[in-house]
Structure formats: C-alpha cells, structure tokens
Design brief:
By secondary structure, the protein is of the alpha+beta class. It has two helices and ten strands, in the order αββββββββββα. 19% of the residues are buried.
Length: 242
C-alpha cells in the first residue's frame, strides 16, 4: 500500500476519534457546568430563606419593607374595594383569595391578602364579610415582582387572575401587599414563598454530575476500544491481478 493510500485510510479513523472525544467531552463539560449552577442556586435559596427567617418586624413603615418582613398595621379596611384573586387551591379545595385595601392611621393605603375563601367550581361573584372600625393586622410582606403571563383579561367582574395594584386605581403606600396572618378579617392562610427547596437543587446538581460521570466513563471506554482497532498501516495490501 502506498503512503498516500495509508494516509487516506487513516483520515476517517482520525475523524471518528476526534468526533468521539469532542462529543463526549462536551457532554461532560455540560453536566459539570449545570451541576455547579444548581449547587449555586441551592446556596442562593438557603440565603434567601435565611433572610426571610431573619426579616424584621415593622410597624407601618414609611420606607419600603424588605421581602418577608413582618408588618403591623393599624387602621380600617376599605371593604367596598375588595377584589378576589381567582383560581386558588388549598388542601384540595378550589377558591379565591380576598384582596382588601386597608387605610392606616396615617392615611396611607395598603393591600391586604386575607387568606383562602373556598368557593368550589362556581363562577358566581364571591362575597365576604369585612370587619369595620379600627383594627390591628399583622402579616408577611411580599414585594410586587415580575408578573406571570396572562391568557386573557386580568380583571373580570370582581376577580383578578393575578395581583395588579393598578386594578384599584388609587395608589398604595408601597409596591407590594401584606399576606395577613393575624387580626380581624383573617381567613385560612395559604400563601407560602414560591421558593424551590435547596435540597431539590442539590438533587438536581447530583443528577447532572452523575450524567457527567457516566459520559466520562463512556468516553474513555469507547476511546479504548477504538484504540484497539486495526491500524490501516498494518493491513496488508492486495495486488490487483494483471
């Protein structure tokens, strides 16, 4: 076999080996990177939950409260402005969450999410009794963030698909709302911070690293088998009959 023919036989084998190493190396790198990303997200969630647990207790703060702060408000409900957050579920039941504006003793307005009100599948307009007079409320503060996508109008009748402070027209003291936990007008608490537990992120990280390890093993075993293959230079040439 001529040298040029030997080189031409080597090229496909070399291309296969390069492709093999390149493909599996990318999978290993991807698994390692995604595992590290999930590990960092777990650390971020632990920090966030720690901040929530250490959030301060504030009474009608003039400045915007930090997320998760426990607020104490004294004033009166504006019952006529109550709207209902639609399509809530709690312990297997379907219902709504009453949203009632609240005016504190300084005249500032706050939005109060009062808890879960079971309605069942009916689409009749919900109603609720609201305490009158001056009351004291306590609950957790949630700042308004990125809005979830909507499929259709947000405000239908006295129902909202998502909380939107502009639905009330008049402004509020701060951009956010109070999840009521104690005080007159409180219903069943249902809200929890929408946070994926850190343990789940750690599980995802281990899964990605397991994938990276499996890809590494396959890459090395396959490369070893390829190395055992016949060398084109060692294949005897056959002379064509004259």
């Amino acid at each position: 076999m001529k040298a040029s023919e030997a080189v031409s036989h080597r090229r496909p084998a070399l291309a296969r080996r390069v492709g093999w190493w390149g493909f599996w190396s990318c999978l290993v790198a991807l698994g390692l990177a995604l595992g590290l990303w999930q590990w960092e997200r777990a650390a971020d969630k632990r920090d966030y939950l720690a901040r929530l647990a250490a959030a301060p207790r504030l009474e009608a703060p003039a400045e915007t409260p930090p997320p998760g702060a426990r607020l104490v408000l004294r004033g009166e409900y504006l019952a006529a402005e109550t709207l209902f957050l639609d399509n809530r579920t709690h312990e297997g039941r379907l219902g709504v969450a009453p949203l009632t504006p609240f005016r504190d003793l300084q005249g500032r307005r706050w939005l109060v999410q009062r808890g879960f009100l079971a309605t069942g599948p009916t689409r009749d307009a919900p109603s609720i009794e609201t305490p009158g007079g001056v009351v004291t409320l306590e609950g957790r503060w949630q700042a308004s963030g990125d809005a979830t996508p909507l499929f259709g109008p947000n405000h239908v009748g006295n129902r909202l698909q998502r909380i939107d402070l502009s639905a009330w027209g008049a402004g509020f003291a701060h951009a956010g709302w109070l999840h009521l936990e104690e005080g007159p007008g409180h219903l069943e608490s249902w809200w929890q911070p929408s946070v994926v537990p850190p343990e789940r992120h750690l599980g995802y990280a281990l899964q990605w690293w397991g994938l990276a390890l499996a890809a590494l093993v396959i890459m090395l075993v396959g490369a070893r088998r390829q190395a055992r293959g016949p060398d084109p230079m060692s294949i005897p040439s056959k002379e064509s009959p004259r």
